[in-house]
Amino acid sequence: MILMRRGLWLLAALVLLASCSSNEEKKALEPLPLVEFENTVEVDRLWSTGLGGQAKKLYVTTTLGIADQTAYTADKDGVVYAVNLENGKVLWKRKTGLDLAPSASVQNGQVYFGGYNGLVIALSAEDGSELWRGEVTSEVIAAPQSNGSEVAVSSIDGSLTVFDASTGNKMWTYGHVVPPLTHRGLASPIVTSTQVIAAFDNGQILAFNANDGSSLWETRVAQPTGRHDLERIIDIDGTPLQNGGFLYAATFQGALAAIARAQGRIVWKQDISTAQPLAFANRRVFATAADGTVLAYNANTGAEEWKNDKMLRRGVGAPAILGDYVAVIDADGYMHLLSQETGEFAARISAKGKRFLSAPVSHEDKLLVLANNGTLSAYTLAD
Fold this sequence. Notes:
- This protein is mainly beta.
- The protein has one domain: Methylamine Dehydrogenase, Chain H, CATH 2.130.10.10.
- Helix content is 4%, strand content 44%.
- The protein has helices spanning 7-12, 14-19, 23-27, and strands at 43-50, 65-67, 70-74, 79-84, 90-95, 100-107, 110-115, 119-124, 130-135, 145-146, 150-154, 159-164, 170-175, 190-191, 195-199, 204-209, 215-220, 241-243, 246-250, 254-260, 265-272, 279-281, 284-288, 294-298, 304-308, 320-322, 325-329, 334-339, 345-350, 361-363, 366-370, 375-381.
- The strands form eight sheets. A four-stranded antiparallel beta sheet has the order 1-32-31-30, with no helix packed on it. A four-stranded antiparallel beta sheet has the order 2-3-4-5, with no helix packed on it.
- It is globular, with a radius of gyration of 20 Å.
């Protein structure tokens, strides 16, 4: 099932919409207008670079691969780019001729991509030359992940496949049942020195021995409820966030949970509906709910510290950290900065580009934003 950014809250409201018969009821589901406020901080755009269109006939989000002050991504034509994060200059680009999903990761000098035809490819981070390629059972729309020894790949049919990072040889696979109806999204695996941790569309997270695929633990963030498949969607589409010995993961129409990584034990849980990645800073976990509410939770206890519900139904994307602020971008291209302490608005600018399905990426003192039209921009707080 294909869902656009603003379509996430529309899905949650679909049952209500079916019963709406008056203009007044329909108006209650329209996006809230922008709130007026005075900027208390200024945001500078450092540079912007055009990388070719990112949009594909099938909706996917994009994750930038970042290492050594370089960002990696691919466009809709399978051209891979390496971009200098200091000045936005393209260091190299490679025409692969492959049907690549745009999300990338990089580890130990290798850049990894998946493809819509089930391809997995490793390229040299230095010049983009191909190192090896492999195949999985279905399309790969989330970035493969590596610890330098193993490369873990989640595919849209619920399979998890692990390759040898040096040779590309397949080491082991695991198959998981996919529910009848899901979002068109997928979380990337987490790969530590000993574990591969994967999130699935039925609200489960499983941990495996990275070397041989033996099961270590499994846990469930949320249980499906409701009578219809639409009501029972509990995908984990945002890659779980790892901080210290904890994982933080959230589902659509389900919950956000803190999980002890060693045993898979749920430490705390809060009700929420989101298909977006999470952000972490200053002992807080930040989340964007499907209706556009931005929330902050205490990372240790799960207590809600604040919520900003002034952007309801505006198609607000995933949160990211910029200094002491939380940044989100709405479907109209406005970037909003919220105070980490209170959730109050601190700044608003128009982001460069057209449509923003991908989550902004925090890197040192910069916020990297990739638009659907291939515009990659770097922002920072003004001095």
